[in-house]
Amino acid sequence: MHNSKHIKFNYYLLIVILFCFGTLHAQNSDPDTTLKANDSTKSGDLLKQIGNGFFPTKLWNFDLRYLIKYNQYEGFRTGLGGITNDEFSEKYRIDSYLVYGFRDDSFKYKIGGGFRVNKDTKTWINLSYIDDLKETGSSAFLTDSRSFSFFEPRLLNISLFHKHITSAISIEHEITPNLYSKSEIAISNIRPTYDYNFLLDGKNYSAFETTTAKVSLQWDPFKTFETSEAGVKTAIDGYPKFTLQYTKSFKDLLNADFNFSKLDFRTIHKIKHNKHSYTIGTLSAGITHGNAPLTHLYHAYPNNITKETILQRFSVAGINSFETMYFNEFFSDRFSTLVLKHYVKPFAIAKHFNPQLVLVSRYAIGNMNNIDRHQNVDFGTLKHGYTESGFEINKLLLGFGLSATYRYGAYHLPREEDNIALKFTFNITL
Fold it and tell me: Are 84 and 96 in contact (CB under 8 A)?
């Protein structure tokens, strides 16, 4: 049965690859010069869409995030999903997906859609019903739904998930071209996939309900725009960028179990030294107040698996994750992280071989009240400050590179090799 599943998976993946290749080939096969120019434009638009995370068809844009992923709980996770485009309707949209996890042998899905209220302010009201997994300790911003990462390496090693069935209504609104907002009211039924109990007022919760309201703001004050026949597009993607989100959970409202609130903040700044050299800093912070279970706290973006040797821990480095911090090693109800990455001018070794050195330093600090409420799980806090530094050599071959990171300071481990992380990096630009 196990082999049969993998055969089906490989067959399905092959169909997707052939479909994508066939479409690209078809767009570049016309011998006529004028048609070739049109095809070149179409190919450029196609690559732009793919860079944004979508493969467009006439009525439906396939979301590339759902094609294939891997994690420690589901194993390979694959499926289809996406959103309707303007050819379908400019006023209404369908946004749904269906995926299957081979290791946990279960389907996950989203049924969603929305309707436009105001064209000028890009105001939409959305409805959704989701039956899926979330990583425990993760804290995503609602406004991040606009962003896309072609490859998410942290997903490979995540093991701590909770199941959730969530019904939500949200409204997105462009206050100004530089200030985007999204608000959501959601009801969730949550079941951790691991042995966990939340002890509160003498009662153990192994599963629970939440009713939450969220407000998220994305402010890009230095982004500039230009208008063309194709519409308004970004001219300069200026820095710094700011994201702020407030979450409130209401006890006893629609059978919810807990009262708590969260405030999350992130800013990204880029300093350009010259044409080829620059520094990027990412500051993230979050604080939780009230009775929040572990599922809704913070883990500080770890990306190291608990195995005996350096080579056994060899995997793929993330973007802003802590490469020497082990999964589930730390949790906090308040935390802050700072990631600094300095990109050195690429080495001009050959025409198509220009590796780039990146110097990296990361710092995290955090703490937690009432640790004893979280039963059957062992973890530490970051109250003494966590530090790691290292380097990346990117773009060695087909977007792949190498990284080395060293853990030092208050959380330096007794066995020296446990403080070292050697990993692949992956960077691709479309």
Answer: no
pTM of this structure: 0.85
Residue 399's Cβ-side half-sphere holds a number of Cα atoms within 13 Å equal to 9
The three-state DSSP-derived secondary structure of 258-323 is CCEEEEEEEEEEEEECCCCCEEEEEEEEEEEEECCCHHHCECCCEEECCCCCCCCCCCECCCCCEE
Per-residue pLDDT reduced to its tens digit, 148-187: 555 566 777 888 999 999 999 999 999 999 999 999 999 9
44-102, pLDDT tens digit by residue? 667 667 766 788 899 999 988 888 888 889 999 999 999 999 999 999 999 999 999 99
Beta carbons of 127 and 104 less than 8 angstroms apart: no
C-alpha–C-alpha distance, residues 111 and 83, integer Å: 11
Q: Which of 132, 119, 265 is nearest to 186 (CA)?
A: 132
Rounded Cα–Cα distance for residues 430 and 418 (Å): 36
Max distance between CA atoms of the chain, in angstroms, equals: 77
Residue given tokens 């919810």 in the structure block = 256
Contacts of 91 (CB under 8 A, 6+ apart): 115, 116
Taking alpha carbons only, the member of 161, 162, 184, 164 closest to residue 172 is: 184
**pLDDT at residue 108 tops 80:** yes
Concatenating the DSSP letter of every residue in 56-124 gives: E-SSEEEEGGGTEEEETTTEEEEEEEEEE-TTT-SSEEEEEEEEEETTTTEEEEEEEEEEEEETTTTEE
CA angle 170, 71, 217 (to 5 degrees): 25
Dihedrals φ, ψ of 231, to 5°?
115, -165
